[in-house]
Amino acid sequence: MKRVLSGIQSSGNLHLGNYFGMLSRMIKYQDENDLFTFIANYHSMTTIQDRSELQKNTLGAATDFLALGLNPEKSTFWIQSDVPQVTELTWFLANISGVGLLERATAYKDKISKGLTSNMGLFSYPLLMAADILLFGGELVPVGKDQKQHLEISRDIALRFNKIYGNVFKIPRADLDINNQIVRGIDGQKMSKSYGNTIPIFAPEKLIKKQIMSIVTDSTAVNQAKNIDNPLYQLYSLFLNEQETDLLKDRFLTPGLRYGDVKKELYEKVMEHFRPFRQKRQYLEKNQDYIFQVLKNGADKARLIGREYLAKARAAAGLNYWE
Ligand code: ADP
Ligand code: TRP
Q1: What is the 294 CA–ligand 2 centroid distance (Å)?
Q2: How far is the CA of 140 from the centre of ligand 2 (A)?
């Protein structure tokens, strides 16, 4: 049984990109693996300094995970900041990581080019991420393609730590889905909350409909065959099996298809798929005590493992001078 570990940053409404890129795959792992997962609220602090916004997003993301089927009986689920040992390990890792390694991180460069204010937290984001994984012995890390480089950095750092101090950490590996690497947004770019092009999972129905109806299409006439390289086709196929995708392809390639009709069908599909999760979320929102209990138990369990790894790292680095 492998330890599968992943986190998600708690900074906004979950969308189809998060779901198909990583969440649904991660949740499936709970059935046959040892799943560890957390809400990365220390990471959110790199960009959110408003206390109530941070709290709201953190609890909101925890509620989303549980609503989407994360089962606390089968997994270990916690809020990152409830296991603060991870920040100590980050310091260890900072001292064996060159500045150049972090300067090459494209996610950092992207954020800066989009106008986010640079700070040391944002710059060292990949170090905290490596610590998240190593502290709990994560082996397989399900993430979307945009996190691939961060995983490579984590591996590099783990190898370097073991080389300098001896074999303390497992070497993690990214788990990417070859089919759904990048889910496109309604404008055709990568779906991302920072581009405002998402189809959110838990938003009011009206907003979901508005977003789906605004998916960009080309101006091909109704009586002509349509191209399948477009976001409408891609988004729809996320909900279809192979046979159904072939049928959809035929419909696109046969003259007569109206994009508006396909968008309405897609809206129905999205609602049908997420209805049970949306209902569960409403129920969970009224049962905050249950969520707190789950998170508390998860943090207790994660902390036990984190402490063990940290003790090994401290000893390996020579901080156990009193023993
Ligand atoms: P966003 O880009 O909306 O800010 P996050 O960076 O919080 O999303 O991503 C959370 C997780 O979802 C990551 O593992 C990321 O790789 C995955 N993910 C986000 N957007 C997409 C997408 N459009 N396609 C595939 N995976 C995605
Ligand atoms: N950076 C990831 C994201 O934006 C979240 C994250 C934090 C993470 N720590 C992690 C993912 C450790 C996997 C493993 O979604």
Answers
A1: 20
A2: 13
